[in-house]
Specification:
Layout (H helix, E strand, L loop, with lengths): L5 E7 L2 E8 L4 E5 L13 H4 L4 E5 L17 H15 L5 E5 L2 H11 L6 E5 L8 H5 L2 H9 L3 H14 L7 H12 L3 H10 L4 E6 L7 H10 L5 E4 L6 H4 L1 H12 L2
Parallel strand pairs: 3-4, 3-5, 5-6, 6-7, 7-8
Antiparallel strand pairs: 1-2, 2-4
Helix pairs in contact: 2-3, 3-8, 5-6, 5-7
């Protein structure tokens, strides 16, 4: 592709998995948020060139990966899918990076395979307690709405809710899958996994993040093992876009071990 990224589909026993790749070197597996895709890390491709191999994974129900390739919508289920992709690609002890709710998936993958990763990166990732955007979403009622007979009539409302949070242009199926994933999320389980981490961990976030409060992100910094800590006043919810060079440098540091 013109941006230096290559998109392809990997065949797993459970079904196809879409991935986005760029570069050569130690592998960095990137897990997107909800909704999203492996292309959510495209800004890191150029600054990581020559230092690492970027592998963005499309989670089940997003990008080019169908839900059937990994039906369990929980962070643990999504983590098991990511581990299957890692095994299919033959990656040995990659760095794993999660953006936004992808951080829960990345942490669950590290917990499931403690010796399987060189480092962990959390970009604008949720912390020990539910953040404001998670609290505001009526997960149970929306999930029921996407499954019931009124689902076609309620789709415009769902689109408006996500658009109000900054998520525009996603297909209805991806929004429905997002709701299912959010409904299957336990912050108590996530907090327990965070406190048990021992892997070198990078965090990167911005104080003006519209989805996660700065005090939640700062609290997370203090609860994690040592590693690079990147913080900016401006940049919103996508630090890998607005601060790509600094984020890529810290990821490359983890990849070097």
């Amino acid at each position: 592709m013109s941006d230096g990224l290559t998109e392809r589909v990997v065949r797993l026993p459970s079904g196809p998995a879409g991935i986005t790749e760029a570069g050569q070197g130690p592998a960095v597996v990137c897990v997107h948020g909800l909704p999203g895709s492996g292309r959510d890390f495209r800004w890191l491709a150029a600054p990581l060139a020559g230092r690492a191999r970027l592998v963005g994974v499309d989670l089940p129900g997003f990008g080019r990966t169908p839900v059937a390739s990994g039906e369990d919508p929980s962070p643990e289920g999504r983590a098991a899918f990511v581990l299957r992709v890692i095994d299919a690609l033959g990656l040995e002890r990659p760095v794993i990076v999660g953006h936004s709710m992808g951080g829960l998936t990345a942490v669950a993958a590290v917990t499931a395979r403690p010796d399987g990763f060189r480092g962990l990166g959390l970009l604008a990732s949720p912390g020990l307690r539910p953040h404001r955007s998670f609290r505001r979403i009526p997960r149970r009622s929306l999930h029921a709405a996407t499954k019931g007979p009124w689902a076609p009539l309620l789709r415009p409302l769902v689109r408006r809710l996500f658009a109000g949070a900054g998520f525009r242009g996603y297909p209805d199926a991806a929004l429905a899958r997002t709701i299912a994933c959010l409904r299957a999320t336990s912050f108590e389980a996530h907090a327990a996994r965070l406190r048990a981490l021992s892997l070198p961990t990078l965090t990167a976030w911005c104080e003006d993040d519209p989805l996660i409060e700065a005090d939640v992100l700062a609290e997370l910094d203090g609860a994690l093992p040592p590693g690079p800590r990147l913080r900016w006043a401006l940049g919103g919810h996508v630090p890998q876009k607005h601060h790509a060079a600094a984020v890529a440098g810290a990821i490359a540091e983890l990849a070097r071990g």
